[in-house]
TrEMBL record:
Sections of the chain in a coiled coil: none
Pfam family, one: FA_desaturase
Cofactors that this protein relies on: Fe(2+)
Family that this chain belongs to: Belongs to the fatty acid desaturase type 2 family.
Superkingdom, natural source: Bacteria
Protein name: Fatty acid desaturase family protein
Alphabetized UniProt keyword annotations: Membrane, Transmembrane, Transmembrane helix
Transmembrane segments: 7-29, 35-54, 147-164, 170-189
Keyword Transmembrane helix on entry: yes
One BP term from GO: lipid metabolic process
Domain Fatty acid desaturase: 31-249
InterPro entries hit by this protein: FA_desaturase_dom
Protein backbone atom coordinates (compact mmCIF):
# COMPACT_ATOMS: atom_id res chain seq x y z
CA UNK A 1 0.00 0.00 0.00
CA UNK A 2 1.12 3.54 -0.76
CA UNK A 3 0.14 4.64 2.76
CA UNK A 4 1.53 1.86 4.96
CA UNK A 5 -1.14 2.15 7.69
CA UNK A 6 -4.65 3.41 6.92
CA UNK A 7 -4.79 5.30 10.22
CA UNK A 8 -1.93 7.51 8.98
CA UNK A 9 -4.33 9.24 6.61
CA UNK A 10 -5.23 11.22 9.73
CA UNK A 11 -1.79 12.80 10.38
CA UNK A 12 -1.05 13.07 6.65
CA UNK A 13 -4.25 15.07 6.11
CA UNK A 14 -3.41 17.41 9.00
CA UNK A 15 0.11 18.04 7.71
CA UNK A 16 -1.04 18.73 4.14
CA UNK A 17 -3.87 21.02 5.27
CA UNK A 18 -1.51 23.08 7.46
CA UNK A 19 0.95 23.37 4.57
CA UNK A 20 -1.86 24.47 2.26
CA UNK A 21 -2.96 27.11 4.79
CA UNK A 22 0.62 28.36 5.08
CA UNK A 23 0.84 28.80 1.32
CA UNK A 24 -2.60 30.39 1.14
CA UNK A 25 -1.71 32.99 3.77
CA UNK A 26 1.76 33.54 2.39
CA UNK A 27 0.61 34.24 -1.17
CA UNK A 28 -2.82 35.79 -0.63
CA UNK A 29 -3.01 37.43 2.80
CA UNK A 30 -4.55 40.88 2.26
CA UNK A 31 -2.81 42.54 5.23
CA UNK A 32 0.23 42.25 7.48
CA UNK A 33 -2.07 42.09 10.50
CA UNK A 34 -3.89 38.99 9.24
CA UNK A 35 -0.54 37.35 8.48
CA UNK A 36 0.65 38.14 12.00
CA UNK A 37 -2.55 36.75 13.53
CA UNK A 38 -2.26 33.55 11.49
CA UNK A 39 1.43 33.18 12.34
CA UNK A 40 0.66 33.42 16.06
CA UNK A 41 -2.20 30.90 15.90
CA UNK A 42 -0.28 28.55 13.61
CA UNK A 43 2.57 28.11 16.10
CA UNK A 44 0.21 26.35 18.49
CA UNK A 45 -1.37 24.27 15.71
CA UNK A 46 1.98 23.28 14.26
CA UNK A 47 3.09 22.13 17.69
CA UNK A 48 1.09 18.97 17.05
CA UNK A 49 2.96 18.47 13.77
CA UNK A 50 6.09 18.03 15.90
CA UNK A 51 4.57 14.85 17.35
CA UNK A 52 3.51 13.65 13.91
CA UNK A 53 6.99 14.34 12.55
CA UNK A 54 8.46 12.31 15.41
CA UNK A 55 6.19 9.33 14.69
CA UNK A 56 6.87 9.46 10.97
CA UNK A 57 10.62 9.22 11.51
CA UNK A 58 10.11 6.06 13.57
CA UNK A 59 7.63 4.48 11.16
CA UNK A 60 7.41 6.11 7.74
CA UNK A 61 3.94 7.05 6.49
CA UNK A 62 4.51 5.96 2.90
CA UNK A 63 5.98 2.93 1.15
CA UNK A 64 7.56 5.19 -1.50
CA UNK A 65 10.68 7.12 -0.56
CA UNK A 66 9.82 10.16 -2.71
CA UNK A 67 6.49 10.56 -0.90
CA UNK A 68 8.23 10.43 2.48
CA UNK A 69 10.66 13.12 1.35
CA UNK A 70 7.77 15.35 0.23
CA UNK A 71 5.87 15.05 3.53
CA UNK A 72 9.14 15.59 5.44
CA UNK A 73 9.71 18.79 3.46
CA UNK A 74 6.28 20.03 4.55
CA UNK A 75 6.89 19.08 8.19
CA UNK A 76 10.32 20.70 8.13
CA UNK A 77 8.78 24.00 7.06
CA UNK A 78 6.21 23.67 9.85
CA UNK A 79 8.43 22.56 12.75
CA UNK A 80 12.03 23.50 11.98
CA UNK A 81 12.98 19.81 12.11
CA UNK A 82 13.74 18.56 8.60
CA UNK A 83 13.66 14.96 7.42
CA UNK A 84 16.31 12.63 8.88
CA UNK A 85 17.11 14.93 11.81
CA UNK A 86 14.69 12.96 14.00
CA UNK A 87 16.19 9.73 12.64
CA UNK A 88 19.78 10.66 13.45
CA UNK A 89 19.43 12.80 16.57
CA UNK A 90 16.52 10.91 18.09
CA UNK A 91 16.15 7.34 16.80
CA UNK A 92 19.80 6.51 16.16
CA UNK A 93 21.05 8.82 18.90
CA UNK A 94 18.77 9.42 21.89
CA UNK A 95 16.99 6.07 21.74
CA UNK A 96 20.29 4.21 21.81
CA UNK A 97 21.78 6.33 24.59
CA UNK A 98 18.98 7.63 26.83
CA UNK A 99 20.11 5.39 29.71
CA UNK A 100 23.64 6.82 29.52
CA UNK A 101 23.77 10.58 30.13
CA UNK A 102 27.37 10.79 28.97
CA UNK A 103 26.18 9.88 25.45
CA UNK A 104 22.52 10.91 25.25
CA UNK A 105 21.88 13.38 22.41
CA UNK A 106 19.00 14.75 24.49
CA UNK A 107 20.97 14.60 27.72
CA UNK A 108 19.52 16.44 30.71
CA UNK A 109 22.51 16.08 33.05
CA UNK A 110 25.26 18.69 33.46
CA UNK A 111 28.95 17.76 33.44
CA UNK A 112 28.97 18.02 37.24
CA UNK A 113 26.13 15.50 37.52
CA UNK A 114 23.36 17.96 38.37
CA UNK A 115 20.09 18.07 36.49
CA UNK A 116 19.68 20.98 34.08
CA UNK A 117 16.69 23.22 34.58
CA UNK A 118 14.21 23.27 31.73
CA UNK A 119 15.47 26.56 30.27
CA UNK A 120 19.10 25.41 30.17
CA UNK A 121 18.04 22.08 28.69
CA UNK A 122 15.88 23.72 26.02
CA UNK A 123 18.65 26.08 24.91
CA UNK A 124 21.28 23.33 24.98
CA UNK A 125 19.35 20.68 23.08
CA UNK A 126 17.64 23.10 20.68
CA UNK A 127 20.84 24.94 19.74
CA UNK A 128 22.87 21.77 19.16
CA UNK A 129 20.19 19.63 17.49
CA UNK A 130 21.54 19.86 13.94
CA UNK A 131 25.19 19.62 14.99
CA UNK A 132 24.46 16.50 17.03
CA UNK A 133 22.39 14.99 14.25
CA UNK A 134 25.22 15.49 11.77
CA UNK A 135 27.68 14.03 14.28
CA UNK A 136 25.59 10.88 14.68
CA UNK A 137 25.41 10.80 10.89
CA UNK A 138 29.12 10.04 10.69
CA UNK A 139 28.16 6.47 11.58
CA UNK A 140 25.25 6.49 9.14
CA UNK A 141 26.42 8.18 5.92
CA UNK A 142 23.22 7.49 3.96
CA UNK A 143 21.05 9.21 6.56
CA UNK A 144 23.60 12.01 6.96
CA UNK A 145 23.55 12.62 3.21
CA UNK A 146 19.75 12.83 3.25
CA UNK A 147 19.84 15.23 6.20
CA UNK A 148 22.27 17.54 4.38
CA UNK A 149 20.11 17.40 1.25
CA UNK A 150 17.00 18.23 3.26
CA UNK A 151 18.73 21.14 4.98
CA UNK A 152 19.80 22.57 1.62
CA UNK A 153 16.36 22.15 0.02
CA UNK A 154 14.59 23.68 3.03
CA UNK A 155 16.96 26.64 3.22
CA UNK A 156 16.52 27.13 -0.52
CA UNK A 157 12.74 27.20 -0.12
CA UNK A 158 12.98 29.69 2.75
CA UNK A 159 15.30 31.89 0.68
CA UNK A 160 12.81 31.82 -2.21
CA UNK A 161 9.90 32.70 0.09
CA UNK A 162 11.92 35.55 1.62
CA UNK A 163 12.78 36.88 -1.84
CA UNK A 164 9.08 36.86 -2.81
CA UNK A 165 7.81 38.43 0.43
CA UNK A 166 10.23 38.74 3.36
CA UNK A 167 7.58 39.70 5.93
CA UNK A 168 5.22 36.82 5.14
CA UNK A 169 8.16 34.42 5.01
CA UNK A 170 9.28 35.58 8.45
CA UNK A 171 5.85 35.26 10.07
CA UNK A 172 4.49 32.16 8.31
CA UNK A 173 7.65 30.06 8.10
CA UNK A 174 10.85 31.31 9.72
CA UNK A 175 9.67 32.31 13.21
CA UNK A 176 7.41 29.25 13.69
CA UNK A 177 10.29 26.97 12.61
CA UNK A 178 12.70 28.54 15.11
CA UNK A 179 10.17 28.64 17.93
CA UNK A 180 9.00 25.07 17.44
CA UNK A 181 12.54 23.68 17.21
CA UNK A 182 13.13 24.97 20.74
CA UNK A 183 9.58 24.14 21.83
CA UNK A 184 10.21 20.52 20.86
CA UNK A 185 13.31 20.47 23.04
CA UNK A 186 11.31 22.10 25.84
CA UNK A 187 8.61 19.44 25.58
CA UNK A 188 11.06 16.52 25.66
CA UNK A 189 12.48 17.69 29.00
CA UNK A 190 9.55 16.22 30.92
CA UNK A 191 10.02 12.79 29.35
CA UNK A 192 13.28 11.88 31.08
CA UNK A 193 14.79 14.70 33.16
CA UNK A 194 16.10 13.53 36.52
CA UNK A 195 15.67 9.81 35.83
CA UNK A 196 19.20 8.44 36.15
CA UNK A 197 18.74 4.68 35.90
CA UNK A 198 19.52 1.60 33.85
CA UNK A 199 15.96 0.32 34.20
CA UNK A 200 13.92 1.25 31.08
CA UNK A 201 10.70 0.95 33.10
CA UNK A 202 11.89 3.78 35.35
CA UNK A 203 13.65 5.93 32.75
CA UNK A 204 10.64 7.70 31.23
CA UNK A 205 7.49 9.48 32.38
CA UNK A 206 4.12 8.57 30.92
CA UNK A 207 0.92 10.53 30.27
CA UNK A 208 -2.22 8.46 29.78
CA UNK A 209 -4.70 11.30 29.40
CA UNK A 210 -6.84 10.31 26.36
CA UNK A 211 -7.10 13.83 24.97
CA UNK A 212 -3.35 14.37 25.14
CA UNK A 213 -2.74 11.06 23.39
CA UNK A 214 -5.36 11.76 20.75
CA UNK A 215 -3.70 15.04 19.80
CA UNK A 216 -0.13 13.68 19.99
CA UNK A 217 -0.84 10.23 18.51
CA UNK A 218 -0.06 8.36 21.74
CA UNK A 219 3.18 10.13 22.60
CA UNK A 220 2.21 9.77 26.26
CA UNK A 221 2.91 6.03 26.23
CA UNK A 222 6.57 6.84 26.40
CA UNK A 223 7.92 3.78 28.18
CA UNK A 224 6.29 1.54 25.59
CA UNK A 225 7.71 3.73 22.85
CA UNK A 226 11.24 3.38 24.20
CA UNK A 227 10.96 -0.35 24.65
CA UNK A 228 9.88 -0.81 21.03
CA UNK A 229 10.67 2.42 19.22
CA UNK A 230 10.00 0.92 15.81
CA UNK A 231 6.40 0.12 16.69
CA UNK A 232 3.70 2.18 14.99
CA UNK A 233 2.16 4.87 17.19
CA UNK A 234 -1.32 3.33 16.95
CA UNK A 235 -0.04 0.13 18.58
CA UNK A 236 1.49 1.79 21.65
CA UNK A 237 -1.65 1.64 23.87
CA UNK A 238 -1.79 -2.15 23.45
CA UNK A 239 1.89 -2.47 24.33
CA UNK A 240 1.40 -0.19 27.32
CA UNK A 241 -1.39 -2.44 28.61
CA UNK A 242 1.03 -5.37 28.60
CA UNK A 243 3.77 -3.57 30.54
CA UNK A 244 1.88 -1.05 32.71
CA UNK A 245 2.17 -3.16 35.87
CA UNK A 246 5.95 -2.95 35.58
CA UNK A 247 5.91 0.86 35.56
CA UNK A 248 5.88 2.36 39.09
CA UNK A 249 3.06 4.81 39.76
CA UNK A 250 5.44 7.74 40.24
CA UNK A 251 6.38 7.54 36.57
CA UNK A 252 2.96 8.76 35.47
CA UNK A 253 2.32 12.47 35.04
CA UNK A 254 -0.67 14.66 34.35
CA UNK A 255 -1.01 16.26 30.95
CA UNK A 256 -0.63 20.02 30.91
CA UNK A 257 -3.31 22.56 30.01
CA UNK A 258 -5.71 22.27 28.22
CA UNK A 259 -5.80 18.48 27.92
CA UNK A 260 -7.15 17.50 31.39
CA UNK A 261 -9.80 20.18 31.11
CA UNK A 262 -10.92 18.88 27.71
CA UNK A 263 -10.96 15.30 29.01
CA UNK A 264 -13.14 16.28 32.00
CA UNK A 265 -15.51 18.21 29.74
CA UNK A 266 -15.88 15.37 27.23
CA UNK A 267 -16.39 12.88 30.08
CA UNK A 268 -19.21 15.01 31.53
CA UNK A 269 -20.84 15.36 28.11
CA UNK A 270 -20.62 11.60 27.61
CA UNK A 271 -22.22 10.91 31.01
CA UNK A 272 -25.00 13.41 30.33
CA UNK A 273 -25.62 11.85 26.94
CA UNK A 274 -25.94 8.40 28.50
CA UNK A 275 -28.32 9.77 31.15
CA UNK A 276 -30.55 11.29 28.46
CA UNK A 277 -30.58 8.00 26.55
CA UNK A 278 -31.83 6.20 29.67
CA UNK A 279 -34.61 8.75 30.00
Amino acid sequence: MFVRKKIDYYPITIIVLIFALDLLVFFFSPSWLLTLFYGFISIYIKGFTCSLNHHHQHYKFFSKQWANRVIEFMMGLQTGIVGELWVLHHTLGHHQNYLDQSKDESGWKKDNGETMNVVEYTINVGSTAYARGLRVGKKYPREQKRLIQNIIVTLGAIALFAWINWYNALIVFILPMLILLYATAFDTYKHHAGLDTNDPYQATYNVIDPTYNWFTCNLGYHTAHHLQYGKHWAELPQLHEKIKDQIPQEFYREAGFPFPQITKLTTKISLLSKSWERC
